[in-house]
Amino acid sequence: MRLSGRRALVTGAGSGLGREIAQAWAREGTAVLCCDANLETASETAERIAEAGGAGAAIGMDVAKDGDIEAAVALCVEQFGGIDLVLNAAGIVRYQPIFETTRESFRQTIDVNLFGTFFVAQAAARQMVAQGTGGAIINIASIAGRHGAGMALQYSASKAAVINLTQSLAQAMIGHGINVNAIAPGYMQTAMWDQIKRTYAGGALGATGEDIDLNVCATIAAGRLGVPSDLCEAAIFLASEGARYVVGQTLNIDGGVEFN
């Protein structure tokens, strides 16, 4: 197993990309603390890991709350003896026209997607430094952070910031033996994608979810939407010793999306 003996804290582990990568890391020998704002779904992920013969635990965690972050780090240390890996997969999306975007919704997006990513990384890195054993932090960015999106401007801005934050964290932490990289997924078949489709399907164009899928797939060289498991090998690699000289990078995993 490629990640045998590692101990991981995974945010957004209750569904989608976070759940899939948490399970993939567990299959490779990592003990995983599954963190999510929804404790029930986080617990389901931990149960799946246990049923497959791995070590999993769960905690309810809002990444926008410092107390929740501190509690998660403390529980990971209590349960598994430390932290070696972090996956920052917690995120929200708000699809709104520019003139309907409010300060409150913009702030909430930044609180979760950007501030949450930073403060989880900061708290976990403190523990890694105290252990003196180094580690790896992988942030989930998005191809939306590479290109503007008129209906998702706050989401795109937050993910662009995550890409830059990843570079900065990598520079700050590599001297402590902590490697920081990111993955930028493309269009993924997740609950978040379903939410986006419902937004567009309810719009003036009256497009169906199937129409939206077909239109998006036409822009993807691979000819299909991604699925969460498409990210697993990259997440395993970036968490492994094989990635020790890959520093501050953001890897697009998008099937070859074409942008105008």
Automatic annotation (TrEMBL):
Pfam families: adh_short_C2
NCBIfam families for this protein: PRK07231.1
Gene3D superfamilies xref list: NAD(P)-binding Rossmann-like Domain
Biological source species: Novosphingobium taihuense
PROSITE patterns hit by this protein: ADH_SHORT (PS00061)
Record-linked InterPro entries: NAD(P)-bd_dom_sf (IPR036291), Sc_DH/Rdtase_CS (IPR020904), SDR_fam (IPR002347)
Family: Belongs to the short-chain dehydrogenases/reductases (SDR) family.
Name recorded for this polypeptide: NAD(P)-dependent dehydrogenase (Short-subunit alcohol dehydrogenase family)
Single GO molecular function: oxidoreductase activity, acting on the CH-OH group of donors, NAD or NADP as acceptor
